[in-house]
C-alpha cells in the first residue's frame, strides 16, 4: 500500500501559481495515480497523454493540462506528460515507500524462516500450519454434549435448540400440558 505525500508547501505553491480548481485537482489526482502504480523506475513521474482522461475526474481535464504546462508544473514529453512540480518530494517518498515494502518483505520472510513448523504426518506440505489460536475455521464443530457451537439444550427435554433459545418447538407448543409440581416454565 502506498500513500500520497504532499508537503505543506504544495497547496501554497499551487495557489501562488494561480492554478484553477480543475488544474489543482487534476495535478493531485495524477500524483495519486503515480503513487498507486508500482513502477520499476520510481524516478519516472510520467503519465501517458491518453491516460490522463482515466485519472482526472474533471470534464475540463484538457484545460487543466494546458494550465499545468503553462505554469511549468508539467512538461510535454511527446506521448506523455512529466510531473515537474514537487517531483523531488514525490521521488523521495516513492523510494522510501519501496524500501519500506522491501524491508517488511524481508522481515516477514525471516520470521517465517524462524517459525517454520516441523512437518507432521497430519499436515501435508500444501497446507499451512499457521493458524491463530482463536481463529474461527468456519467448520461444523460438534461439542462434547452433542450440540454444535451455535446450539444449546432445551430446558425441558434436553434436545438441541438454536443458540439463545431455551426451549425446542415441541416443548414450547406443549407447555400448557405440563402439570407437575415443578413448572419448567416458571423460570422464564
Structural descriptors:
Arc Repressor Mutant, subunit A; 6 helices; three-stranded antiparallel sheet; mainly alpha; 5 strands; 188 residues; elongated
- In terms of DSSP E residues, the strand content is 5-15%
Indicate the mean pLDDT. Answer: 80
Number of strands: 5
Cα gyration radius (Å): 32 Å
- Major sheet description: 3 strands, antiparallel
Task: Indicate the low-confidence ranges by residue numbers.
Answer: none
Q: What's the number of helices?
A: 6
By CATH, the architecture of the domain at 10-91 is named Orthogonal Bundle
Helix content: 25-40%
- CATH topology tier name of the domain at 10-91: Arc Repressor Mutant, subunit A
Report how far the terminal alpha carbons are from each other: 53 Å
Q: What's the CATH class label of the domain at 10-91? A: Mainly Alpha
Overall spatial form: elongated
What does this structure look like?
The chain is mainly alpha-helical and 188 residues long. Among the domains are: 10-91, Orthogonal Bundle (Arc Repressor Mutant, subunit A); 142-175, no CATH class. It has 6 helices and 5 strands. It has helices at residues 10-16, 21-36, 52-55, 61-70, 87-114, 169-173; strands spanning 46-48, 74-76, 80-83, 151-153, 160-162. The strands form 2 sheets. A 3-stranded antiparallel β-sheet has the order 1-3-2. The two termini are 53 Å apart. The model has no long low-confidence stretch (mean pLDDT 80).
